[in-house]
Amino acid sequence: MPNFLENFFAQLEKNASRVVIREIHGESFLELTGGQLLQQIRRAQEWIRRRNLSPGDRVAIVGPNSMRWIAIDLALMAEGSVVVPLYYRQAPGELVAVMRDCQPKILIADGGVLRGSITAAWPADAGFRFDTVLFDEILATSASPRAESQTDIARLNARADSDLVTIVYTSGTSGEPKGVCLNIGNVTFMLERTTGRLKQLMRGSQGLDSIFHYTPLNFGASWIATLSFMLRDSVVTLSTDLSKLADEIRLSQPHYFLNVPTLLERVRRGVDDAISKRPSIIRSLYQRARDAAQREIDGTPKAFDGVWLSLGRALIFSKIKERFGPNLRALICGSAPLAPETQNFFRMLGVRVLQVYGLTETTGICTMDDPDGTVDTGHVGPTIEGIEMQVAEENELIVRGPNIFPSYWNRKEETAAVLRGGWFHTGDQGEKNEHGNWRIVGRVKNLLILNSGHKIPPEPIEDKLAQLLPAAQHVILVGNGRGYMCALLTGPIDKSAVQAALDNVNRDLPHYRQIRNFTVLSETLSPDSGLLTAMGKLRRTAINDHFASQIEALYASKTT
Question: Domain range for residue 66?
Answer without folding.
Answer: 4-255
